Structure to design on (614 residues):
């Protein structure tokens, strides 16, 4: 008797695919049913052993499932939830893995037979790759996972989802959807926006200059290109769905950047040195919080900050 | 008979220290003399085996040296060159490892007995750590090194410095100082400026928010903190010394960022999606140019782009 007899994975890319492998390995799931629109994706998910069955219809996918995981691009989760309705049991726990929470709560809940069984979640883990081939067991190991239940959410359902992520070796935190969206705006959304932008700035350089940028990317540009290779659909949805928090943080960043621009233009070395010294201390804070680790750069990688 | 009988390392931190270890291991240097102002640095360099002798006086350090490597913060290289003068032989090759080249050429050459023996260089390698303890053999392996000789530079001297870096397993390119400074402004200087700025924006958040940023840094912020932990003195000098090229690239970036801000404010998904798709292609260009490599994120690190 597994914790979940039948799990429906709505979407089977990097996150849901990796979760499927993790649930299987941890013995948490009986049958895993993947739901994907594309026949190619379904075939590949089966080949890769991400699921036992793969179907096209959301309603068929969720039939008899006691756990449903929404893992499609955030913008279509509401629509998928609506399409699941005919097959969905009121006892089933529904969760999601989107990087934004406020909008998902608003989009998904109206379509569920039992809103209290919806446990909004966000595993803070990923790579720049997407699709079923990007999935791997262990993606969530030593990562954080944020659950954002609302007032009516069933505490027992929250507990079961928490236990699932803890089995995946994630450390689980609980906060409100609004708080989640503010925190992620600065830790994740703004960094992605900036990386996308600078890589775009380079993309607009003349061909010859561009070739050289690739050649000398180890000078610091490499990390930005990795971040800016993340899934375009998902990130478009994230920025548009978390607009207010992203614009607020972006505004603060731009004010600071203009201050730097001014200091450089007027050759003011002291404010630059003072800032660079403060930011060095922040790195220590991050390392102590266990979100980074100190290492010598590996061959082929530079650490992103060559001199 | 080694290629260099006596090497004077002017400054013995991450770069010069790592070069010293590399020269020793490759059997390229006889005696290595380190020059550092601080008694603590000199003692530590000796303890770590980065040099055979450590002295305070630049003139004493370069006596009898057939190779002199300037590895101090860029802004003081001219001053160090002037102080070396009494001890420096006209046959000695002088090179440097600064991340900027135009200014170094202007600052150093007037103080040399034989300007044609100066080979300006920039190993594009490093980590966020600095000082003698950060040095390690192999830092330059599979990295690029840029040499920027000027018209009068002695071709034989350039050849010997090229051979030295190739022994360190770096791939060597030659270009003008001006061209180097333009290319590095976008591949290295602007990315560092942006990373310093966003980490500073976070540093200004209220305490409680800051703690959470550390906790969820894996969402993309981690890479920025690593870049923004780089040596403050060196980077202040870089931005002030390469001002024009940095301001030009920063201007382009800010225009693009304002475009993103506008697209988000007005919920224009298409330009965002189109940009994010183009930037994904750039990543492939960088990987093909061999400056990055595809990997699953290691435990404790996230790859900087968790969802």
């Amino acid at each position: 008797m597994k914790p979940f007899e039948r799990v429906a994975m709505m979407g089977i890319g990097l996150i849901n695919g990796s979760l499927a492998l993790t649930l299987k390995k941890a013995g948490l799931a009986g049958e895993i049913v993947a739901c994907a629109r594309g026949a190619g994706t379904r075939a590949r998910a089966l080949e890769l052993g991400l699921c036992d069955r793969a179907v096209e219809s959301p309603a068929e996918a969720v039939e008899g499932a006691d756990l449903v995981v929404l893992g499609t691009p955030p913008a279509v989760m509401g629509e998928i939830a609506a399409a699941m309705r005919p097959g969905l049991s009121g006892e089933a726990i529904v969760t999601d893995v989107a990087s934004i929470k406020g909008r998902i709560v608003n989009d998904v809940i109206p379509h569920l037979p039992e809103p209290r069984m919806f446990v909004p979640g966000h595993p803070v883990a990923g790579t720049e790759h997407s699709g079923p081939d990007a999935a791997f067991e262990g993606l969530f190991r030593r990562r954080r996972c944020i659950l954002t239940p609302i007032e009516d959410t069933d505490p027992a359902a929250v507990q079961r989802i928490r236990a699932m992520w803890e089995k995946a070796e994630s450390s689980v935190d609980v906060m409100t959807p609004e708080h989640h969206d503010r925190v992620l705006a600065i830790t994740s959304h703004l960094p992605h926006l900036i990386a996308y932008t600078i890589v775009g700035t380079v993309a607009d350089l003349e061909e010859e200059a561009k070739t050289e940028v690739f050649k000398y990317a180890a000078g610091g540009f490499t990390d930005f290109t990795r971040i800016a290779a993340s899934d375009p659909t998902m990130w478009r949805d994230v920025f548009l769905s978390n607009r207010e928090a992203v614009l607020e943080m972006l505004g603060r960043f731009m004010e600071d950047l203009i201050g730097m621009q001014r200091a450089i233009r007027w050759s003011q070395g002291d404010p630059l040195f003072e800032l660079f010294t403060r930011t060095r201390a922040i790195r220590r804070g991050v390392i102590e919080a266990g979100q980074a680790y100190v290492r010598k750069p590996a061959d082929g990688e530079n650490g992103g900050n060559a001199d």
Residues 293-307 of chain B have pLDDT under 50 and may be disordered.
